[in-house]
Design a protein that fits this description.
The protein is mostly helical. Helix content is 84%, strand content 0%. The chain has eight helices and no strands. Helix 1 runs antiparallel to helix 6 and helix 6 packs antiparallel against helix 8. The mean pLDDT is 88.
């Protein structure tokens, strides 16, 4: 049996933490780009497009992320396409994140008073100009706090990528626990690392929300 000290456990978990952070950033940035594109399509195009995007959102919000990871990894392989655990996890988490962000941002756009749309139309702005110059800047201020808050869910969601063999923080914790026979200590350290990642983000989201309420009061 390999003897693991607390320092060895923390050092190995810290190395795995890099991949958790990297996967979280890829999912959040990629999901943000996909979500922003879907939001513009949902606002600007007809009812058929809105229904298609609504179905997309419903599928990814209404099914477990674990199942989405399995489909991205094993399902794509059935089509003869060889995908790595890294690619499958990035794809699944990006699509999952985009489905939630498009709804968060849609609610923020709808929270902009209708009078702002009417004022923009009275200035003979095109639809794109209305969004770019009037609606989206106001919606963006409303969206900052819930968007930052959702990042916590993305970070915690990366833990499920361990089931398809992606070695992030949780997977590394399981491997170290099996080798050291110290599961309580190891997973206590894993929980500490997740707390160190998520707690500052939660505080930032709460601060932004209070700041936003202070502006609108």
């Amino acid at each position: 049996m390999i003897e693991f000290t607390l320092w060895d456990i923390l050092r190995n978990l810290a190395l795995a933490l890099r991949w958790t952070v990297a996967l979280s950033l890829i999912a959040f940035i990629g999901g943000g780009l996909v979500g922003a594109t879907l939001l513009c399509l949902r606002i600007g195009l007809g009812r058929k497009t809105q229904r298609v995007i609504g179905a997309y959102v419903g599928i990814f919000q209404g099914t477990p992320l674990l199942m989405q990871l399995f489909l991205a990894y094993f399902g794509v392989s059935l089509l003869g396409i060889d995908v790595s655990a890294w690619t499958a996890a990035s794809l699944a988490l990006t699509l999952y994140t985009s489905a939630y962000l498009v709804e968060i941002w849609r609610g923020c756009v709808e929270a902009v008073p209708r009078g702002q749309w009417e004022a923009a139309r009275s200035l003979a702005m095109s639809f794109g100009e209305q969004l770019r110059h009037v609606i989206l800047p106001q919606a963006a201020r409303l969206a900052i706090a819930p968007t930052v808050g959702f990042l916590v869910q993305v970070i915690k969601g990366t833990a499920l990528a361990s089931v398809i063999g992606f070695v992030e923080l949780t997977k590394a914790g399981g491997m170290i626990a099996n080798a050291s026979f110290k599961p309580f200590l190891v997973f206590g350290c894993v929980a500490l690392f997740y707390f160190v990642l998520c707690f500052p983000v939660s505080l930032a989201a709460q601060h932004l929300e209070r700041k936003q309420h202070g502006r609108t009061a």
